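Entry 12.
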Amino acid sequence: MIVSLREKGRITIPVSIRRALGLRVGDRLRLSVKDGTIILKPVDTVKAEDIKGIIGPFKVEIEEVEGAFGRDLS
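Predicted 3D structure (tokens):
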């Protein structure tokens, strides 16, 4: 498949490729170069909506969440 390089170095990933990889607007891709080849790989991320309901309901204290992010509320 051939794509064209546009202004500011932009390309469009064809819809068939986006669908095959499950890519959506806002998804992040890692760009690298190896042996003269451009490589784009989806960055593995997990969104809250993807895992909602998997482990069931439970309570989490805001202090635990802030602590996990390295923030001190005091």
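Annotation: Residues 18 and 24 are 7 Å apart (CA to CA). The chain has a mean pLDDT of 84.
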